[in-house]
Design goal:
Elements lengths: L23 E2 L2 E2 L8 H18 L5 H17 L4 H37 L7 H25 L12 H17 L10 H26 L2
Antiparallel strand pairs: 1-2
Helix pairs in contact: 1-3, 2-3, 2-4, 3-4, 3-6, 4-5, 4-6, 5-6
Length: about 220
């Protein structure tokens, strides 16, 4: 009607749909045509969001691999002498910041790509986003533990040389940092503060993206 079906409007430069925002990331395009039948469209959107979550799971690989690697590094460093630790401290700190930046970029990209396909239906990707946040908190707990074992002056906290106590302490610190509630653990070194800042920035990004996609029509 009125000049042809809706699909024909995308080829006209002066049409409404051709100028409609089309955010695209990692090869995914947000829906640009109106929902003609909500009951028929919703299952397709769920499938698309679920498919995007599965196809982009590789963006979480650096975070998951880094979590395992840092806990392994922490275990290995328990038996290293103090002199050897000091010699590797600078490179270990720089590497942690660089790799954490890469990990955070991957996590943020995953959340964005999934939200684009969900197109405002956040409950369709609830578990994907929740899982990403859980991976993020475990990763930061691992890198905080590694940094503390590398240089105990990085945090104002006293933790016994016990794997379980270290895990609980820094997982607690990771969760409270992400939630911005504050904790009894305080970052003291520049490296620790940079890592905390990166985690808080990830929170700001996740919250703002969720708010934008939830409130967008």
């Amino acid at each position: 009607m009125y000049g042809g079906p809706l699909g024909d409007y995308s080829s006209r430069s002066d049409s409404y749909f051709s100028s409609y925002p089309r955010p695209s990331f990692l090869g995914h395009t947000k829906r640009v045509t109106p929902i003609l039948s909500p009951e028929a469209e919703q299952p397709n959107e769920k499938i698309a969001a679920s498919l995007a979550a599965r196809l982009n799971i590789w963006l979480l690989v650096p975070a998951m691999a880094g979590t395992v690697a840092y806990y392994l590094f922490t275990s290995i460093f328990r038996g290293v002498r103090r002199e050897e630790k000091e010699g590797k401290s600078a490179s270990g700190k720089i590497g942690s910041v660089v790799f954490t930046s890469i990990v955070t970029l991957g996590l943020a990209s995953y959340i964005y790509s999934v939200l684009v396909l969900a197109d405002g239906h956040l409950m369709d990707v609830y578990w994907s986003i929740t899982g990403t946040i859980a991976v993020q908190m475990l990763y930061f707990a691992a890198v905080y533990t590694w940094l503390y074992r590398l240089d105990e002056s990085s945090f104002d906290v006293k933790v016994e040389d016990d794997p379980i106590e270290e895990f609980i302490t820094f997982l607690y610190f990771s969760i409270t940092t992400f939630a911005t509630t504050g904790s009894s653990v305080f970052p003291e070194s520049i490296t620790a503060r940079i890592l905390v800042a990166i985690q808080v920035l990830f929170l700001v990004f996740s919250f703002s993206m969720g708010l934008v996609f939830f409130t967008s029509p």
